[in-house]
């Protein structure tokens, strides 16, 4: 099943949506990666409080971004742009924190956050 196909079949979608749909897909996945990373951080021996907080914040922002990106009826472009910008910031903040830890779950989370931020930047350039 294709998210792109679902969005393209919306009666009010007239424009190309590839970048926005890719950002939505990555944001949804990033939310899950960040949630999983935060949970793994709880089990670490060292103090991971800041990493847990950044991961959970990023997970929530990413989940909201994914939902807003696929809502196409009576769009509020200003809110969508602000949400994409918030997602970029949350992902970059989380990635920077996770990159400071030497464990595999943080490495994967940081990579996903960087990919999500990049896709949100690409989508932002096409949202008008």
Keywords for this entry:
single chain; 128 residues; mainly alpha; Substrate Binding Domain Of Dnak, Chain:A, Domain 2; 5 helices
Can you describe what's shown?
The protein is an all-alpha fold and 128 residues long. The protein has one domain (17-124): Substrate Binding Domain Of Dnak, Chain:A, Domain 2 (Up-down Bundle), CATH 1.20.1270. 75% of the residues lie in helices and 0% in strands. The chain has five helices and no strands. The longest helix is centred in the first third of the chain and has 25 residues, at 18-42. The two termini are 27 Å apart. The model has no long low-confidence stretch (mean pLDDT 89). This is Four-helix bundle copper-binding protein. Pfam families: Csp. It comes from Qipengyuania xiapuensis.
Helix-strand sequence: HHHHH
Query: In CATH, what is the class?
Result: Mainly Alpha
**Mass-distribution shape:** elongated
Share of residues in helices: over 70%
Count of spatially separate domains: 1
Low-pLDDT stretches: none
- State the end-to-end distance: 27 Å
How large is the share of residues in beta strands? under 5%
> Helix segment count?
5
Largest sheet: none
CATH architecture: Up-down Bundle
Q: Please, what is the average pLDDT?
A: 89
* Number of E-state strands: 0
Class by helix and strand content? mainly alpha
What is the fold named in CATH at topology level?
Substrate Binding Domain Of Dnak, Chain:A, Domain 2
């Amino acid at each position: 099943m294709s998210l792109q196909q679902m969005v393209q079949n919306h009666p009010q979608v007239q424009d190309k949506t590839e970048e926005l749909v890719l950002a939505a897909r990555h944001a949804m996945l990033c939310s899950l990666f960040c949630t999983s990373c935060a949970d793994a951080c709880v089990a670490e021996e060292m103090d991971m409080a800041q990493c847990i907080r950044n991961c959970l914040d990023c997970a929530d922002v990413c989940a909201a971004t994914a939902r807003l990106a696929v809502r196409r009826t009576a769009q509020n472009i200003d809110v969508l742009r602000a949400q994409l910008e918030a997602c970029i910031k949350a992902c970059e903040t989380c990635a920077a924190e996770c990159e400071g830890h030497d464990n595999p779950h943080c490495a994967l989370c940081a990579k996903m956050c960087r990919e999500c931020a990049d896709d949100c930047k690409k989508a932002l350039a096409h949202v008008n």
